Amino acid sequence: MKRRITLNILASLLTVAGFSVSPTTALAQNKVVIKIGWTTSDGAQDPYAIGARAFKTAIERESKGTMEVQLYPNRQLGDERQMLEGMRFGTVDGGVITNAVIAQIEPAFSVNDLPFLFSKEEQAHKALDGAVGAELSKRLAAKGIVMLGYMEGGFRNMINNSRPVSAPADVQGVKYRVMQNPVFIEMFTSLGGSAVPMAWGETFTAVQQGTIDGLEIPLAVIEANKYYEVTKFLSLTNHTYSMIGLTMSKRTLDKLTPEQRTAVMSAAKSATAVQRQVAGADAKKTLATLEKNGMKVNAIKDVAAFRKSVSPVYDKFRQGGNAQLMDMALAAVK
């Protein structure tokens, strides 16, 4: 009753000031709006889009209508690095961001990108929902960005226009776009490939024009962004589990009431669970769709050979002062 009276008073004051506003409109105008961006499409199977939509649904439910999430796919808020920098300064509210790009802000996140670390999704979930994830969240918070949820992009695979990859030797001499992240650069270098660091927004055109031969990418992102139109071969290397982080600016979070912050954290937890489930279920359907669209698909023959080839990546990560974190991740896998 008291809330209705307050809204009526607000509406009356606005009317006196020359505006015609109903109590319901006044309430809508007082909603907290959070803008969430990501760089890929808003397609039904895109894992970034699935996560963003799940978060929107959950937070608007948890906040009982006092908060609204607006969605900005396709780089509308900038590339991933730009969005992260915006979160640090409070000019961007949040985003669904690729792990390797988060590692550009907090290098410890590179542990998630170590090649062939995880062999199945459950291992990654155990690490990220446990001690490894807690430590990473703590370090990122110190940079002004809050990790709300470790969502799932699926395992990354190699696609190219040169040849199928079934052994490490098949990577040699092939130009692969990689994210601007040392682990990915070192991974392809150790396999004998030519690593070409490149922003996501430039990649499709680069493949189309032959500037690069291919890239490494999750299945769902291949489909959602129609990479089957410009690449021939899909090799199921499953070399890296792609964590995508539901992130928010600490400055944005700090402006919320305690009740709203609780709603955000609760919504993020439920949205992460939903996103993982949906993304996992879509993977098999996506593979069939890519084959139907003409991609030639093959599995790798000997995972151990790939692991041996990329061992220098692990050595360098350990020597970079991350030995304890890497041991935590390895323990979670075991």
Provide the fold topology:
Elements: H1 2-16, H2 23-29, E1 32-37, H3 47-62, E2 67-72, H4 80-89, E3 94-98, H5 99-105, H6 121-128, H7 131-141, E4 145-160, E5 175-178, H8 182-190, E6 194-197, H9 200-209, E7 214-218, H10 219-224, E8 233-249, H11 250-254, H12 258-292, E9 296-299, H13 303-309, H14 311-333
Parallel strand pairs: 1-2, 1-3, 5-6, 5-7, 8-9
Antiparallel strand pairs: 3-8, 4-7, 4-8
Rough shape? globular
Number of domains: 2
Total number of helices: 14
**What assembly state would you assign to the polypeptide chains in this entry?**
single chain
- Give the biggest sheet: 9 strands, mixed
Instruction: Count the E strands.
Output: 9
**Per CATH, what is the topology of the largest domain?**
D-Maltodextrin-Binding Protein, domain 2
- What is the CATH architecture descriptor of the largest domain? 3-Layer(aba) Sandwich
Describe this structure in words.
- Helix 3 links the parallel strand 1 and strand 2 (67-72).
- Helix 3 (47-62) runs antiparallel to helix 12 (258-292).
- The protein is 51% helix and 20% strand.
- With 334 residues, it is an alpha/beta fold.
